[in-house]
């Protein structure tokens, strides 16, 4: 939970100002007055045991990248001579909050450990230079763990062989995600694989997301890639975060993605959109050659293509997909389950290498529309272009930068692979065509 009113005091105009959480470091009053300024974001520092040890508000630059169903990053630059710089070291971490948390009880932007420390100094300055601390969000362990066929046994025990080919589960997507995470890095994982403090169970009384029924069949995939597949197909948001700086607990939070397209509208006319840019990228592959079982001349091959992409870009590019564990289909149509398996493998390969459309925008936070309060990553929002075209798609990534000079928020809408959002690709392509035709007339 966020710090309450006891952690604040009033400014002369009635606004609240955050009172720093004091650590065992005594900061001289002149230093505080000269270096600490009001910030839009609050940075709590935690130790390796997830206990809060202090607060950093003397930073000169803060950068945060929050990603939907992926690993976010953060960086924090401080004067090297400032006492607060001693709060952060290897094994420590941060919890980064929107400043409005004290009034609104919002969740952190992210939390995560320090992974890099950089010291910059030159003889042109009389101070000790700057220290920049960088790290990832707490989703990172999802990418650090493999989904074992049998998570109860390590590969170097027994006879070196697993008794099952795959870890398989059927049911609601959220239940599978919780069981998968708990078994490979949570409370049910082998001791050497557990992430300290990670709790995969939802708090009592909390509504739980379930998602559509699905099937998971995993064999040494990363847990992150499996979570991305399960959550995307079920319309879920999944992340690991420390929600309360006073409690040494990392929570696995699963919730339905929200459609905020009617409530959250970003446009030049509303004054909450500073700029936008869109980008089209050619596919890396337009044809997938899939190989099933067999040896040499007896091996079975079949090809799937994306003719629309080839026509748009006048390009044919091939990719090989090895499905040697898949039996040869008896029939070459969708009625044969083995043929369907090969078709799905081809679709995945073409999706990963498909044509891309990306829309980047710079929202302007207003009292009526603020990132962190009115919308989050994963939420669907509406962006209105200068031509009056409405684009309603999920926010996939948000970059936040805060310094003494300025605070900026930049969002990326849509997905990296246009095959997942073909409508976005089509709309962005039509925008480009309209601009191109206009330019060629003059």
Core attributes:
globular, disordered N terminus, disordered C terminus, 442 residues, 23 strands, alpha+beta, 3-stranded mixed beta sheet, 13-stranded mixed beta sheet, single chain
Explain what this protein looks like in three dimensions.
By secondary structure, the chain is an alpha+beta fold. The protein has eight helices and 23 strands. The chain has helices spanning 29-35, 101-104, 140-144, 173-184, 223-234, 307-313, 337-352, 422-440; strands at 8-10, 16-18, 41-46, 52-56, 61-67, 73-79, 93-98, 110-120, 130-136, 167-172, 198-199, 213-218, 236-241, 250-256, 265-266, 273-281, 287-291, 301-305, 318-322, 356-363, 380-384, 390-403, 407-413. Strands 3, 4, 5, 6, 7, 8, 9, 15, 16, 20, 21, 22 and 23 form a 13-stranded mixed beta sheet that branches. A three-stranded mixed beta sheet has the order 11-14-13, covered by helices on one side. Helix 4 (173-184) runs antiparallel to helix 5. It is globular. The protein starts with 7 loop residues before the first strand and ends with a helix.
